[in-house]
Amino acid sequence: DAGVIQSPRHEVTEMGQEVTLRCKPISGHDYLFWYRQTMMRGLELLIYFNNNVPIDDSGMPEDRFSAKMPNASFSTLKIQPSEPRDSAVYFCASSLAGPDNQPQHFGDGTRLSIL
Amino acid sequence: QKEVEQDPGPLSVPEGAIVSLNCTYSNSAFQYFMWYRQYSRKGPELLMYTYSSGNKEDGRFTAQVDKSSKYISLFIRDSQPSDSATYLCAMSLYNFNKFYFGSGTKLNVKP
């Protein structure tokens, strides 16, 4: 089975540019999560969706960050305008609720560097 | 105070040793406890999960939860160099949605 797929794997861009990170969850999973990982703060939950609807976005740091899930197989995390302090590894994860409830499965992340 | 505390290590052990990794937490309402392994430049990979208290074993790995002490452990028997990674504990309240992660312990198993 294909796991969670994220693209791009690496992104280097200049401050002020728009950045779009993409995620394809595991087929059939109904929850999708966006995380950010840094050395200082560890793994932080930014936002999560259930059946394409945002449930909790309390972890989104600022209005510069936005996330969408237009359908069950695709989600984006956008940063506009980007700043050097946004440099981090961004992970997407998905999980399945219901009788087969299981913990989250992670993608391999997007390593973002803002110059 | 963080919800979940984890010693960052690094922890260095010889091959074949028994490894003990631990997390403490402050919220007594946590019910689900997870352990993830993260290799360098990869995403966290689910190792094991338990509900409420007790032990769970899977091959060389054993997870323990002590809710009275708010303390969870992961034991690795006969550790291998391939076990060298960062181990993250995670906890949640009602389901597998909002996770609270520890900061991770870096483990190095020397051949």
* Mean pLDDT across residues of chain B: 93
Could you describe the largest sheet of chain A, including whether it forms a barrel?
7 strands, mixed
Shape of chain B: globular
User: What share of the residues of chain A does DSSP label as strand, in percent?
Assistant: over 45%
β-sheet strand percentage of chain B: over 45%
Series of H and E elements of chain A: EEEEEEEEEEE
Structural class of chain A: mainly beta
Largest interface: A-B, 23 and 21 residues
Specify the helix fraction band of chain B: under 10%
Q: How do the SSEs of chain B run, as a string of H and E?
A: EEEEEEEEEEE
> Percent of residues of chain A in helical segments?
under 10%
**What does the oligomeric state look like here?**
heterodimer
| Overall strand count of chain A | 11
Poorly predicted runs of 5 or more residues of chain B = none
Instruction: Summarize the biggest pleated sheet of chain B.
Output: 6 strands, mixed
Q: What Rg of chain A do the Cα atoms give?
A: 14 Å
Q: How many DSSP H or I helices of chain A?
A: 0
pLDDT under 50 segments of chain A (min length 5)? none
| Total beta strands of chain B | 11
Structure write-up:
- The complex is a heterodimer of chains A (115) and B (111).
- In chain A, strand 5 and strand 6 form a beta hairpin.
- With 115 residues, chain A is mainly β.
- Chain A is 0% helix and 54% strand.
- In chain A, strands 2, 4, 5, 6, 9, 10 and 11 form a 7-stranded mixed sheet that branches. A 4-stranded antiparallel sheet of chain A has the order 1-3-8-7, with no helix packed on it.
- The model of chain A has no long low-confidence stretch (mean pLDDT 93).
- Chain B is an all-beta fold.
- Helix content of chain B is 0%, strand content 55%.
- Chain B has strands at residues 4-6, 11-14, 19-25, 32-38, 45-51, 54-58, 61-66, 71-76, 85-92, 100-101, 105-110.
- In chain B, the strands form 2 sheets. In chain B, strands 2, 4, 5, 9, 10 and 11 form a 6-stranded mixed sheet that branches.
- Chain B is globular and about 40 Å long.
- The N and C termini of chain B lie far apart (37 Å).
- Classes of the chains: A mainly beta (115), B mainly beta (111).
- The A-B interface holds A 4, 31, 42-43, 45, 48, 50, 55-56, 91, 93, 95, 97, 101-109, 111 and B 32, 34, 36, 41-46, 49, 88, 90, 95-99, 101-104.
